[in-house]
Amino acid sequence: MSGQFLPVTMEECRERGIEQPDFVYVCGDAYVDHSSFGAAIICRLLESRGYSVGMIAQPDWKDPESVQVFGEPRLGFLVSAGNMDSMVNHYTVSKKHRQKDSYSPGGEMGHRPDRAVIVYGNLIRRTYKKTPIILGGIEASLRRLGHYDYWSDQVKRSVLLDSGADLISYGMGEHSIIEIADALASGLDVKDITFIRGTVYRCKSVEHIPEPLYLPSFEEIKEKKEQYARSFGIQHQNTDPYQAKVLIEDYGNQGYVVQNPPAYPLSEQEMDDVYHLPFMRTYHPMYEKKGGIPAIEEIKFSLTSNRGCFGGCNFCALTFHQGRIVQVRSHESLLEEAVEMTKDPDFKGYIHDVGGPTADFRQPACKKQLTKGACTNRQCLFPTPCKNLIADHSDYLTLLRKLRKVPKVKKVFIRSGIRFDYVLADPKSHFLQELADYHVSGQLRVAPEHVADKVLEKMGKPSHKVYQEFLKQYYACCKKSGKEQYAVPYFMSSHPGCGLKEAVELAEYIRDMGFMPEQVQDFYPTPSTISTCMYYTGLDPRTMEKVYVPVNPHEKNMQRALIQYRRPENRKLVEEALIKAGRQDLIGFGPKCLIRPYDGRRAQKVENLKTQTGSAGKNRKNGRGNLNQSQQPNGRQQKQHAGKKKTIRNVHKKR
Fold this sequence. Notes:
single chain
């Protein structure tokens, strides 16, 4: 371990004998030197290959001098919005500003711009006209071609054009960034770097490309939703590194944007090498005054054991970013990191997670994926597990058992989620029992997402009966272990394919569960997912069939309210939704009813009492209601006041 953070000032560069860094990394996140942060991985990887890197974290995007800290780098600028898309980081699905940024000092908002890679790219280009600029990270990766932008409700161009950058390194980037660095170091002009997998570039002519696959032009996808869906369908079929073609998107007189096939997956040894890089495993000390970086708390004592996911959920962008081929670290690598973790003075004996996008994926879905790639015409688990699927938790179980034996480790939890249909597909039952025995902290988080099969089909999730069977087996294992543990499901509202009828079906299931979810996720149309394509076009890009999409904000509010139907503030929306769905049978006093009939007089009485007690509270808060000893209410007055509170509670209870 080097024992040093990357230089963040020119003075620190000179202390290390660096007069001009090879690369300058400009990032929308605060600087956290941990393997869970993409910026840290790329910078440490370049450093391990002999390249020097200066870090500019969260520059002032209104001041060009903020990206001139190191002057002009010898080879180029690397630009990323950070671990999250800047628009998702800033806005909720209802397009309201979030109150906290976990990737900024003290959780403060306002340290990065909207559409960060575009803003940073142009900020750099204003001063450095010819210096190579390479975009990376999830924001650039998912906007590498023409894409639907939910926040503006428009189809936007590739960020390569709007940012002034020269290249996009899409996906996880370890292979492509080293190839880019070596090409630049050899003296090759950035405009001639057109041959590297996992990159996107722009050019005026495409005559040099053998057997490309032409997408509909940008003008076509902007004008016609059918063409957008067709383009996305082609892109989705070309996300596998073994089968993908070179894709070309025509921008008229502005030339072409060309996407090379994805980079090949990392081998186990390459994965080990990446996670063995000399990370400091924490945030830079310059953030201490503001309380550090909140995001570190979730991952500081967690282990990343895999990347990639063959689950294929349609609302997830992993297919376009990490790919469908699972890549893993060795047991030795993970155990070594676990031992290092126990040396941290803040370690309390608990490893919070051992996983990745899906915790229990520890090998490719089938043997042929590593030579022939993932199938373009079907999913590994949907609608049912493929006959070639290797569902085996043996390796994962062995790893967990080894981790449990590490000195100073009291408990090893699994929090990143398991794929319950994959668990059921495993002919051996050992995993589920050991999960219940050792790796659940009282609540197991699972993601059935919905209960209506019509909606689950559009989500790419297994049918509801599969989830029900999983619950049956899970609770049997909990009973056998003698532990009172629960499965906590995540549900999503307003996904394409979900109407009020299906939303009511979900509400009825929640009623029968006996508890109301504290959190509900409305479907969030982020770039480069099948579900987002459905949302924008009303078409399934795989079949071009029409899909019902709840886009009206009021209907989306009703669907969300149905999931949390017990909340008093949702009552009117729930009643309206039930009436529109023709389910007035769920309004009444029966045990299956969701809400009671509306009583205007009772509701008004509650509001009046709220107003009275609220005014009294306001007076007390303002100091106008302070009483001296002689003015304190007598016993009778106290009983009356208590009676009012009781009345309010009783009215709420009746409602």
